[in-house]
Amino acid sequence: MTNYLHKGDLPEGLNLGPVVAVDSETMGLNTHRDRLCVVQLSSGNGDAHVVQLSDRDYSAPRLKALLADPAVLKIMHFARFDVAAFSKWLGVTTAPIYCTKIASRLSRTYTDRHGLKDLARDMLGVEISKQQQSSDWGAQALTQAQVDYAASDVLYLHALREKLDEMLAREGRAGLAQACFDFLPARAELDLAGWPEIDIFAHA
User: Fold this and answer.
1) pTM of the entire structure?
2) If DSSP codes are grouped into helix, strand and coil, which group holds residue 200?
3) Most buried residue, 59, 110, 177, 187, by CB count within 10 Å?
4) For the chain, domain boundaries
5) Span 177-193, mean pLDDT?
6) What percent of the chain has pLDDT over 70?
């Protein structure tokens, strides 16, 4: 079931548990220019909550509290982008984090295909449509196709985390992955501060 929350916040009293899948939709890929429009969440039980934020009103106190809650692990795919968007538009530091893209890059070294669509197909046998990815997320109301797409981006992250954790442990890289996850809020702040593509650890 998908709960579409139009122009609002998470419902009062909603408890999504200690591990929540999170994703976002924005007007584009430039975090400073392109506003945050939608945040979708799932507790891993097959349900999704799609929150369409009010136009340029980013109060959403319950959503912000969940993203910043140190007792709730947030699973994301390419968390670097979402964490930067949440920092820029919601003013919150999102943590702790588990990033399925980083986990895939560290464990699935036999492939260069680490997109969510690739992971869902290769690891779960699930086909995710990306047809709505570039649609207008700033519209006054989302279409059913947009809501379904947004939900699909979080419904499989719990299952992917389980499989990726097994691979990370098998390859002896779980600790390295955790260190990368812990660094993500700082990496997002570097992006926002003007170092998006510069490797500050490089010699030159």
Assistant:
1) 0.95
2) coil
3) 177
4) 2-193
5) 98
6) 99
